[in-house]
Design a protein that fits this description.
The chain is of the alpha/beta class. The protein is built from ten helices and ten strands. Helix 5 links the parallel strand 7 and strand 8. The protein is globular, with a radius of gyration of 17 Å. The model has no long low-confidence stretch (mean pLDDT 93). The structure holds 6-hydroxymethylpterin-diphosphate.
Length: 283
């Protein structure tokens, strides 16, 4: 890739020579695919450590579902859901990311020890920008069209890949101007966030255009609805095969980080694909 060789995230420097795997931990009662499983803190920590043992490099902790139609939570509720789990995992040396669009949650998560702030709003909120710039955390700038509650109401683009790339370049540039070192920033097309199935497919197909911006590209396609539309698998938890295909194709087109629910299976599939490419076998 054209970008940095490591992604600097607080105390961590994640090598980008092989794909980085981000395991998803939703501590929400209503997330679309695994909601309700990890509301208990100990169960959440156990599940996260399992993902680390399976080969996850990062655990992405989210306390608010962004599923269209999800129950709204207050910022205090969201912070309360995530901080205990983050602190427990950070204490064990895990590279933890917080999935939030709220500056206050990001600030509390940073105090609890997160190494990465993953903002689906792409740091468009000035307060979020200030919190991020004042930290040493890695930052994921994601593209979303509109707001979660309305984003799937007929999303339209003249050229989806060009518009997403322009947005990501603009937001990453704004972070750099606010003092964030370039090697702390990753960019993400936001699969499913204000996109039709065709938009998602085109973004994956044209991932090299995003990679050429020079930041590591993160892709989160795991279990998403467009996979169900293509494969006919309606139950999100059963979309493993389609999710793995999407992760492999994303990596083949330049993704540096994949955000996934099924860590063990994804890690195995990536190892196999890498071996075929002639890369070193060991992960
Ligand atoms: N997708 C979801 C949430 N956060 N963050 C990034 N950077 N990229 C993504 O594609 C992304 C994300 C949605 O998936 P999930 O967390 O499984 O569900 P929910 O929104 O219901 O919590």
């Amino acid at each position: 890739m054209n970008g940095p060789r490591v992604w600097r995230c607080g105390a961590f420097a994640l090598p980008l020579a092989r794909p980085v795997v981000m395991g998803i931990l939703n501590v929400t009662p209503d997330s679309f695919s695994d909601g309700g499983s990890y509301v208990d803190r100990d169960a959440a920590v156990t599940a996260a450590l399992r993902m680390v043992a399976d080969g996850a490099d990062i655990i992405d902790v989210g306390g608010e579902s962004t599923r269209p139609g999800a129950e709204p939570v207050t910022v205090a509720q969201e912070a309360g859901r995530v901080t205990g789990v983050i602190a427990a995992l950070a204490e064990q040396g895990v590279c933890v990311s917080v999935d939030t669009r709220h500056a206050l949650v990001a600030a509390e998560a940073l105090s609890a020890g997160v190494a990465i702030v993953n903002d689906i709003r792409g740091f468009t909120d000035p307060e979020m920008m200030r919190v991020a710039a004042g930290s040493t955390a890695g930052l994921v700038v994601m593209h979303m069209l509109g707001e979660p509650s309305t984003m799937q109401d007929a999303p339209a683009y003249a050229d989806v890949a060009a518009e997403v790339a322009a947005y990501l370049a603009r937001q990453a540039g704004a972070l750099e101007r606010a003092g964030v070192a370039r090697d702390r920033i990753a960019i993400d097309p936001g699969i499913g966030f204000g996109k039709t199935t065709e938009h998602n497919l085109e973004l994956l197909r044209r991932l090299p255009e995003l990679e050429s911006l020079g930041y590591p590209v993160l892709v989160g396609a795991s279990r998403k609805r467009f996979i169900g539309e293509i494969t006919g698998v309606t139950e999100p938890r059963q979309r493993l095969a389609g999710s793995i295909a999407a992760a492999l194709e994303a990596v083949r087109r330049g993704a540096a980080v994949v955000r996934v629910h099924d860590v063990a299976a994804t890690v195995e599939a990536l190892a196999m694909a890498r071996a075929i490419e002639g890369e070193a076998h060991a992960r």
